[in-house]
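Model the whole thing, not chain by chain.
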Amino acid sequence: MNAFVHHFAYEFKTGIRDRSQLLMLYLFPLIFFVLTGSLMTSLNPGFKQTMIPGMLLLAFMSSTLLSLPNLLVNARESGVFRSYRINGVPSASILGIPVMATGVHMAVIGTITSVAGVRLYGGVPPAHVAGFLTASLLSYAAFAAMGALIGVAAGNNTASILISQIIFIPSILLGGIMVPSSALPVHLRRVSLLLPATHGMQIFNGLAMGGADRILLSIGVLVASATLNSLLAGLLFEWDSRASRTGRKAYAALIGISPYLVAALIGTR
Amino acid sequence: MSKTIVSVRGFRKRYGETLAVKGISFEVREGEIFALLGPNGSGKTSTLESLEGLRHPDGGSLSIAGIDPSRQVRKLQGIIGVQLQTSALPAAMTVDEAMNFFSSYHGVAARNDLAERLGLEEKRHTQYVNLSVGQQKRLAFIIAIAHEPQVLFLDEPTAGLDVRSRTDLHVLIGDLRQKGTTVILATHDMAEAQKLADRAAILLRGEIAAMGSPRQLTAAGNRLTRISVGTENGSLLGRAIEVPGGVAKGCENGYALFVSESPGTAVSAILDWIERAGDTLCDLRVERPTLEERFLEITSENSRKGAEV
């Protein structure tokens, strides 16, 4: 318990102390929130309906896809994991505690963007708080597991940034954060089912905002994704630098996208 | 006679096609400081890291206090302390946080007294990235010994340290030996090994080329004891003096040089000669062959053999 407290406290403080983490956890989501809040609410009044869950999902993606993988890759490649290993720090703590600490930062960001979104930009508040919390937890779990898996599987920072951007950029464009999914061309709606953000927005709309129905598929996809990717991250975790090794088994991480492939094959929008 | 705590039998380690360690065997007794010496690529770090549970052996058996390092890693972590050659901690972690963090995983309180003793007291709130290499090494050492391990592994512990820090660390290692901690030390610094180690093994190309106490190792070499003599009138210079038990080797920087197998007899004879010559002794230096010289001798012998093969 003492070890957990020290580890958690360190990870939490680093989220603020480390400039790159501070940028991804707070500054980038907040700047994005201010810009989109100012622009989108006047250009597209319908944005007010999805603004609060959309900004929260953006913060989740920024912290888990753009920040977490790099942290893991850097720590492994610089030998930090080896220091952890010889001192008995388990791999579950290495992966799990930063995710939990980031989750607390996300709770702070979620509170700021929800309150400020309603007050400053007329964003629609969640109709069901319990549903909002459930959707938040589920979405965060799916993104965090995906970020951890990218960090474990990527051999270097270039690879981790590339993989993260492949998910992040389409999620912003097609995931229902900026543009409602219903406004997408039919063929892109199916493509959007490959993205976790789409399912996150679907669940927020269904559980918290009193909107979309047929959310069971999205719940199933995010639960499966969070579970599968957590397991894969644990299985593929390596203590040593991959610089001098091929890391072929990292390709097994591609199994992690299977829930989204299934959703795109069977889902209808 | 203390009991064996570390046992290595027929240990082999392979990287792809290369057999880096070729079936070495040695034992380390409880409370002993055992040095692993060898040039880069000789298999020191592979041996050390396999004993630490960081690598899996490809053959042979390893045991630390009856624990198999490759199978019982969790159990092993409780009884060993490790200072890696290139230790790395998270860049943003402060000295205080690092001590608390790792001590908590070992289930002990942080050792602030060690921070004070190793000169890190004023750096307790400094982040790891802002510490000098020497300070990082000292922090790694504190973390390695905070839980009072039975067996301590030190991989180049004083590389990059200034003279003062190095001396402090040597004193601390000596204290640990007094308390009964077994230390396995990998180093390039022969003077350090000669000073600290009870026994040493010289590894070359994955094999043990020589093993024994530093005294035994140096005694087994071809090098003779070197005697340098300086006198007021320089009566010894430029003369082929016959000295029982010694051979004159000319002069260097105003000193007459001799080499000897029995330095006691030779020195006595030289002093008699100076007195008879009416000269006065200014300086006398008797230098035993060092571990470094013996190491160089062994490595060059090995290179020759390698070239012949």
